[in-house]
Prior knowledge:
The radius of gyration is 26 Å and the shape is elongated. It has 2 domains: 26-202, Creatinase/prolidase N-terminal domain (Creatine Amidinohydrolase, Chain A, domain 1); 204-452, Creatinase/methionine aminopeptidase superfamily (Creatine Amidinohydrolase). Helix 6 (146-156) crosses helix 7 (171-184), helix 9 (208-231) packs across helix 10 (238-251) and helix 11 (314-333) packs antiparallel against helix 12 (352-361). With 454 residues, the chain is α+β, with helices and mostly antiparallel strands. It has helices at residues 3-18, 30-41, 68-74, 114-120, 131-135, 146-156, 171-184, 196-203, 208-231, 238-251, 314-333, 352-361, 444-452, and strands at 48-52, 82-86, 104-109, 139-142, 164-166, 193-194, 256-257, 262-265, 286-290, 293-295, 298-299, 303-307, 340-341, 396-397, 403-406, 409-412, 417-420, 423-427, 433-435. The chain has a 6-stranded mixed β-sheet, with helices on both faces. The protein has a 3-stranded antiparallel β-sheet with strand order 7-10-11. The longest helix has 24 residues, at 208-231. Bound molecules: glycine and manganese (II) ion. Manganese (II) ion (MN) binds at residues 301, 382, 405, 407, 422.
Amino acid sequence: MCRFLRFSCIAAILAISLAPLAHSLEKQPAAAYRARRVALAAKLHGGAAVLFAAQEAQLDFMPYRQDADFYYLTGWNEPGAALLIVADADQPQTTQAPAPRRYTEILFLPTRDLRMEKYTGAKLDAASPGVAQAAGVDAMQPMTELPAVLNRLMDADRRLAHNVWAQPDSPQAKALLEFTAATLGVSAPTASRDVTGMTAQLRVVKDAGEIELLKKAADASIRAQRVMMKAVKPGVTERTLAGKMTAAWLEGGCERASYAPIVGSGINSTTLHYSENTRTLEDGDILLVDAACEYSMYASDITRTVPVNGHFTPRQREIYNIVLGAQQAAIDAFVAGKSKINDRDRKDPDSLDNAAYNYINTHGNDLHGQPLGQYWLHGLGHMMGIDVHDPADYPAMLKPGMVFTIEPGVYIPEEKLGVRIECDFLVGADGKLIDLDAALPHTAEDVEAAMRDK
Ligand code: GLY
Ligand code: MN
């Protein structure tokens, strides 16, 4: 066999064996995920963390989405895996002292289910060619080894019996920890320390790679909102608009909506999370469209409110301008490291919710001459990242690297008039706010112009 032929054969075998590695998601470099695992280890008080991947969807045709924390720490997008992180630990001052431990990370991959793979596609296991490079984790092992590895760890250092951090709602974690406790004869509960509180602290500040993915999600969502603005007219159904936006997201390389699209016309604009999308648009209606997509697991969250016939009525324009003014009041009040978001009680003087609420409550009136504050029912915004509502302790202080929404609204059922304007903001390294949705019309006049631009 000539050398060239041998090379081609090897290349072909490699191509076939690596085929399942072709990820549709844009991943960050392996070093970014490893840095997050090391950062998590530093929070474990010398303990260990075990996190499980999301299981394959139970309902037919429901697409798979990885557990957000698991994805954040690994970039791994297959079901059934587990990640073990063991923190550095010094030797304790006891007579039967275990040896000091060094940082360890192991990705455990499940045994392949060849029958299920006929339905949902090929998966990788710990022995698949190229899997170590695809995972970028220090060590890989078959999932069957996880109980034994944890058992050995705990047996060598019984302090771990009270220092294993896991996802609180994971039945796999519960079973694993109970089994390990039973095999070691440990009477106390071995764990159920909640790891998600720690991952939340890490996830709230985005790194440069995450910000790029969030910008791509925002850009695709902006394009879809523009498609919507051009398609809106009397006689079109809410669902048709949701469909056109979905097509634009998928064309833009996004995998799915970040949440069920809210396309509410007329009275439906006053239902905060309306998602039936069954009504037909009528001349003179207002239309609230809270719909956006996620790109490679990172979310966008945008709301625009438009007039169905292309022209706001004077009353619709008045309310629109009040909501836009409230958003601007929050932006003007923003100070990095001081301002907070999502203060439902509006008691914290540093909350941007206060600034927006005061604006709404001192501008305009309802049909009975009452102020409009009573018609704003939700928090001003939320953190955003792998989840459209990323975890955070609210009211949350806003610092560089954080990404969050500012989304004031006024919803007056009596007038069949709901207006929400929602944009996604990044706190830049210099502490200034960056509007990720700056390319989308904000003012009533710019919305009308975008609708004319058929
Ligand atoms: N965009 C919907 C929400 O944030 O609840
Ligand atoms: Mn939102």
